[in-house]
């Protein structure tokens, strides 16, 4: 049996998991991530969790094909509920919406204790997830941009106190001149265009509520332009 292959999104997570970590994969689906980590000798065992029996059955099948059934604990349940706080120190929550990821973390009070690394790969609502993390006792330690069919963000976070993010940082993450991502400029342009389209959609409304929203969007657009100009200047 050939070793399992990972998509760029999951590979970005796999490369960060510490050697020997107690690893759990939430929303595991086919269990490709824990199987890859086991095959490459990164971890001794894993916990694979999924909300539905169908995906968990597929996870068992993947493990069986790679002769790893005995090294993975398969658990049916919602988010972190099937997991004890002492059972893992590296947890992946990938391939779901940012609001769902925030809900999963929020429903496990122990998650913000600071002892566990969380590898978060939101498919949608990334700004909402960044906002939720810094406001609810988590520190974003690292961000990685990954190209697959489009650009995706992988956030590495743990419990702790984080300085408040500006609206632009909620949208695009913190930046500094030491960042090496080849996709940062493209990401800034994409998010700026998205904010400008939202502002344009509010421009024709005379409703007071929409005018107040437009004011906030104008502020965000201005901050994102400054962030992009700063990034361009650093690349010269």
Note poorly predicted spans. none
Secondary structure: helix percent: 40-55%
Shape annotation: elongated
* Beta-strand proportion: 15-25%
Average pLDDT rating: 95
| Derived structural class | alpha/beta
Give the number of helices. 8
Query: Span between N and C termini?
Result: 48 Å
* Order of strands, widest sheet: 3-2-1-4-5-7-6
Gyration radius from CA atoms, angstroms: 19 Å
Count the strands? Answer: 7
Order of helices and strands: HEHEHEEHEHEEHHH
What does the largest sheet look like? 7 strands, mixed
Structure report:
The chain is of the alpha/beta class and 236 residues long. Helix content is 42%, strand content 19%. It contains 8 helices and 7 strands. The protein has helices at 8-14, 32-39, 53-65, 98-106, 126-135, 167-172, 184-202, 208-234, and strands at 23-26, 46-50, 72-76, 90-96, 117-122, 138-147, 151-159. The protein has a 7-stranded mixed beta sheet with strand order 3-2-1-4-5-7-6, with helices on both faces. Helix 3 (53-65) links the parallel strand 2 (46-50) and strand 3. The longest helix has 27 residues, at 208-234. It is elongated and about 60 Å long. The protein starts with 7 loop residues before the first helix and ends with a helix.
């Amino acid at each position: 049996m050939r070793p399992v292959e990972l998509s760029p999104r999951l590979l970005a997570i796999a490369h960060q998991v510490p050697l020997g970590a107690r690893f759990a994969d939430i929303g595991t689906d086919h269990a490709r991530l824990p199987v890859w980590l086991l095959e490459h000798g990164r971890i001794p065992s894993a916990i694979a969790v999924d909300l539905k029996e169908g995906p968990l059955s597929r996870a068992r099948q993947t493990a069986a094909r790679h002769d790893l059934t005995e090294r993975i604990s398969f658990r049916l349940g919602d988010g972190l509920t099937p997991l004890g706080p002492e059972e893992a120190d590296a947890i992946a929550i990938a391939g779901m919406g940012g609001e769902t990821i925030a809900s999963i973390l929020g429903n496990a009070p122990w998650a913000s204790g600071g002892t566990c690394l969380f590898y978060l790969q939101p498919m949608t609502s990334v700004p909402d997830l960044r906002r939720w993390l810094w406001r609810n006792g988590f520190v974003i330690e690292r961000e990685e941009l990954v190209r697959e069919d489009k650009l995706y963000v992988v956030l590495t976070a743990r419990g702790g106190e984080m300085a408040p993010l500006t609206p632009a940082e909620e949208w695009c993450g913190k930046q500094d001149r030491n960042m090496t991502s080849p996709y940062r400029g493209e990401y800034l342009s994409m998010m700026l265009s998205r904010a400008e389209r939202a502002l344009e959609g509010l421009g024709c409304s005379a409703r007071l509520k929409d005018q107040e929203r437009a004011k906030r969007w104008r502020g965000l657009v201005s901050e994102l332009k400054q962030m992009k100009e700063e990034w361009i200047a650093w690349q010269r």
